[in-house]
Amino acid sequence: MQVIVSSALEQGLIYCFMVLGVFLTFRVLDFPDLTVDGSLPLGAAVTGALIVGGHSPLLATTAGVGAGLCAGLVTGCLHLLLKSGESDSTNYGPKLLAGILTMTALYTVNLRIMGRSNIPLLGVDTIFEKLGKLLSLTMIGWNVVLAVGALAIVVKYFLDWLLHTEFGLTLLATGDNEQMIRAMGTNTNFTRIVGLSLANGLVALSGSLVAQQQGFADVGMGIGTIVAGLASVIMGEVIFGLRSVSWVLFSVIGGSIVYRLLIAVSLRLGIAPTDLKLLTAALVVVALSIPTVRRKVVRS
Amino acid sequence: MSSPATLEVRELRKVFFPGTANEVVALNGIDLEVPAGQFVSIIGSNGSGKSTLLNAVAGTFPVSAGRIVLGGSDVTKQAEHVRSRMIGRVFQDPRAGTAPSMTIEENLSISLLRSQRSGLRRGVTNRRRQVMRVQLSRLGMGLEDRLKAGVNKLSGGQRQAMSLLMATIAEPSLLLLDEHTAALDPKVAATIMELTAAIVIERGLTTLMVTHNMELALRFGDRLIMMHAGRVVLDLDEQQKSTLKVGDLIEKFHEVAGEAFAVDRMLLE
């Protein structure tokens, strides 16, 4: 049981950066960004290729995040090109298409970066081993949880600070009422691109850490990222609540952990790993349709 | 912070869907000069181009021809968000002027930042809270004690009062009101209109107010403009309009426009 909890915590924390990224796009920017299915393996691919190439894991991780930032930038620019002149913030077509295009293009980019579909990272120094050597600890189990947990807290407080700055307010307002914030002199094309870039940088950070923790980067590891991220965001919001921006960032991290715990328990109960994506999709459908169903029931 | 500015509109034209079967000439050569501090009411039937004029001045879309000069500088080609630093706007829908899931203090902080570039300093500061408390207390709605409340908890009237405050708090060079009381119930609409007049007069704001309501147009403002088919067909100064009644206005319209007037559209509320 303890193993399940610690490995779920580990997974939940490693993936929480991705979930924070999905939260930024879906909730803060009101931009359902599908880039994440490509930017997660992008982070892994860049980090994997650099580590295997003999570079330091810290540099490799940073470069992975940088690549994610660029992926978000591309999606933001594509959205600018695809949306027709007059801005209609409820028009999700161009937003979805921009993400799909980047995600698809990234499949090729990721294969090119890796040179093959899978890079094993066994027997090379990852950021976890480096940190272990530095602290003279074996980086397994709870030690990984603590290390990644500390990084999660740093990132959480960074986002908390950012969203409370002047720029952060315009970022929040871009997703909440674009017409208003434009009338207040904010270039929403700029805020949206910065938000998308930041979000995908976070997703790539998760990808980079996943690769280093599981010991390989794989071109297919991003499939279903968006759905897992959304499931985590929704569960976090439902279980821990939305009181304030600071609070909801914690909720979302909590959602990531609960989601991975649920996955671990499902596997323990004998559900095949290949069936998990269907279950996750079903979970999101149920969670998203509860308000609609409830309204219908109340009306009838 | 900027001061009220002169607005000059020269031979302004806006054609929607040019070259298609749906082509509409929304603005057909508008010439208008509004001195700094003047409060202009604009009336006209549906499709007369009054809202299009406001949106053209605000920069919501590029115009087909003509010039817009604000405070001496040509803003015709300036992007909407750049112009917005000088222009305050209140829309018809009370939901349009505020960010619903953000708090009152976050919304007002955004409006206080309008004329400057937003940076990485803290958004809601105690100094800004002080300014907003003073301004909110003037609304007489008790909002100054609810700074941390979500805007989605407010009524339509309260939200429109906030929109008005947000549009004017950073001293815009120009204020654009697009039927901003039309979606409110009559009592609330009257309150918002009194508030508007008080703020506009006190600050001496250059203001364009579009309305369907002829009585409002006659009662408020220093000048009355009537539009029809994308043109200004009647332009009355304060003295001329002070003697007019709603009935006279309808008659005037018949004279100038020379066609049946959509009285039903302009009926008093």
Summarize the structure in words:
The complex is a heterodimer of chains A (300) and B (269). With 300 residues, chain A is mainly α. Chain A has one domain: Orthogonal Bundle (ABC transporter involved in vitamin B12 uptake, BtuC), CATH 1.10.3470. Chain A contains twelve helices and two strands; from the N terminus they run H-H-H-H-E-H-H-H-H-H-E-H-H-H. Chain A has a two-stranded antiparallel ribbon. The model of chain A has no long low-confidence stretch (mean pLDDT 91). With 269 residues, chain B is α/β, with parallel strands linked by helices. Chain B folds into two domains: 184 residues, P-loop containing nucleotide triphosphate hydrolases (Rossmann fold, 3-Layer(aba) Sandwich), CATH 3.40.50; 75 residues, no CATH class. Chain B is built from ten helices and ten strands. Chain B has a six-stranded mixed β-sheet with strand order 6-7-8-3-9-10, with helices on both faces. Chain B has a four-stranded antiparallel β-sheet with strand order 2-1-4-5, covered by helices on one side. In chain B, helix 3 packs parallel to helix 5 and helix 5 runs parallel beside helix 6. Chain B is globular, with a radius of gyration of 19 Å. Classes of the chains: A mainly alpha (300), B alpha/beta (269). Chains A and B meet through helix 7 and helix 8 of A and helix 2 and helix 3 of B.
Protein traits:
heterodimer; A: mainly alpha; ABC transporter involved in vitamin B12 uptake, BtuC; 2 strands; globular; B: alpha/beta; Rossmann fold; 4-stranded antiparallel sheet
